[in-house]
Amino acid sequence: MTWLVTGGAGYIGAHVVRALRDAGLAPVVLDDLSSGHAAFVPEGVPFVRASLLDAEAVAAALTDHDVTGVIHVAGFKYAGVSVQRPLHTYEQNVTGMITLLESMQRAGVEQCVFSSSAAVYGAVDVDLVTETTAKNPTSPYGESKLIGEWLLRDQEIAAGLRHTSLRYFNVVGSGDPAVRDTSPHNLFPLVFDALAEGRQPRIYGTDYPTPDGTCVRDYLHVADLALAHVAAARRLEAGEPLEPAYNLGSGDGVSVRQIMDAVASVTGIAVEPELAERRPGDPPRIVASGELAARDLGWAMRHTLAEMVDSAWEARRASA
């Protein structure tokens, strides 16, 4: 069975590609390298450099490589930036999804795992987010991911597409020192950049109603996330039932202060964060339950916070 991984040259997609290969499945990468890196694609894995908006290139990739399923990771992933660039976000994430689904239907590809986002929930006010928590996205990015899930649902009704969506929050760590998070907006790269430049990272808000006063979020190791994508693909291949969507959550979360302490412990660098005022709209706690995913996908948090930081730091140093 051959699986096309859109965005397979990116941080998350490249880990999915490796997990597919390690599971004995045949991955093919489609990526326009707008944020990915050709060097992240393992040797021997077919690589199609193309945009999802290029319908002919997508169709050719599906047919030329006899693709049987798609793991759709590609997208414009910067929630904050999406507020300033809504049209670009919708073009990349919604028009791109439509182009992909049209190409899949023409090629007879009827299986899709969608890398969605917990941003579909917005700024929730519940202790634990479940799949039935109300969807109130607060950014064009979150809205575009929710629309993507709707498109999958509607294509199931119209054309028999079999699919599932995986929702998650913050992805960190590395499963291969050759692949690291290069996003200019994610917490770990921002902290490492600050330390490398002799600056201190910043904590926004220390007076939240949490154990240490800083925001609490889900942080997931990217290799664990990749395994969940492969498990979903295997269940689709086997014709086994799947929920429309799964949360990949920790169930308890980690605070920003705990992350700073872990970075100091792992790197041996003194971390004394600058303390700043709260940012508007930041909820004190957003943590998801992973119970459904554990039941159906074998989802588990296989890495400690220290292991997440250590693997990310190793990949950062390997790229220096």
From TrEMBL:
It catalyses: UDP-alpha-D-glucose = UDP-alpha-D-galactose. GO terms for molecular function: UDP-glucose 4-epimerase activity. The keyword Heme does not apply. Its EC number is 5.1.3.2. It comes from Microcella pacifica. GO terms for biological process: galactose catabolic process via UDP-galactose, Leloir pathway. It comes from the Bacteria. InterPro entries: Epimerase_deHydtase, NAD(P)-bd_dom_sf, UDP_G4E. The gene is galE. This is UDP-glucose 4-epimerase. Pathway: Carbohydrate metabolism; galactose metabolism. Residues 3-249 form the NAD-dependent epimerase/dehydratase domain. PANTHER family: UDP-ARABINOSE 4-EPIMERASE 1, UDP-GLUCOSE 4-EPIMERASE. Keywords: Carbohydrate metabolism, Isomerase, NAD. Its cofactor is NAD(+). SUPFAM superfamilies: NAD(P)-binding Rossmann-fold domains (SSF51735). Belongs to the NAD(P)-dependent epimerase/dehydratase family.
